[in-house]
Specification:
It is a single chain. By secondary structure, this protein is α+β, with helices and mostly antiparallel strands. It is built from 5 helices and 6 strands. The protein is rod-shaped, with a radius of gyration of 39 Å. It comes from Mycolicibacterium rufum. Keywords: Membrane, Transmembrane, Transmembrane helix.
């Protein structure tokens, strides 16, 4: 808003209002802001490029480097050990400690195989072991990891198993091989498949 006053000589003088004064003062400030932005544009672009590079590095770490780490020799050793321990627990039991033996075996299992094992031991193994005093002991003779991924593994095991019962007090011996499918759940390898080979 502006106003005019007349001097004694009759000349009109324009007097700027407060709003005009503020707008006039704001214009150089805006120009200075744009100039500063242009001056620092290189730095801003550099920061954006660094953030993008850090994101790309994190992606590579998660998708490639970490995958190598979770499938290296240490991971293979852990999977092999889990397969051996779980297999021995699965195939070893005694009539005096069936509940304890079955519970120990179940702690190494997961998924549908856990359900199958629970059903099979309840309906078939427990009655036979109790009535005929069946006792089995398994030992893993040899084993190797045939395939490993971050959350799954395949292990081949060679097993010796001795079985003693009322009908055969001297015991019988069997050698077999199994392919054990493992799944990593909460950091632990658990058996999800158990297939004779």
């Amino acid at each position: 808003m502006s106003a005019e006053e007349t001097t004694s000589g009759g000349e009109a003088i324009s007097i700027a209002g407060d709003e005009d004064t503020a707008a006039a003062a704001e214009a150089p400030r805006r120009r200075g802001l744009f100039t500063a932005l242009r001056r620092h544009l290189g730095a801003v672009v550099l920061v954006i490029a660094l953030v993008a590079a850090a994101g790309a590095a994190a992606t590579v770490y998660v998708t490639q480097y970490r995958q190598d780490r979770v499938t290296d020799a240490t991971a293979m050793g852990a999977a092999l050990e889990a397969a051996k321990t779980g297999t021995v627990a699965l195939l070893s039991y005694s009539p005096e400690s069936l509940d304890k033996d079955f519970a120990a075996a179940k702690s190494h299992l997961t998924g549908e195989f856990l359900s199958y094992y629970t059903d099979f031991t309840t309906k078939v193994v427990a009655p036979a072991a109790t009535q005929k005093s069946v006792q089995t002991k398994a030992d893993v003779v040899q084993g190797a990891v045939s395939e490993i991924h971050p959350d799954t593994a395949q292990v081949l095991l060679f097993i010796n198993q001795t079985t003693v019962s009322k009908e055969n007090p001297d015991g019988s011996f069997a050698a077999s091989s199994v392919k054990v499918g493992l799944k990593k759940i909460d950091g632990s390898w658990l058996i999800e498949k158990f297939d004779p080979v």
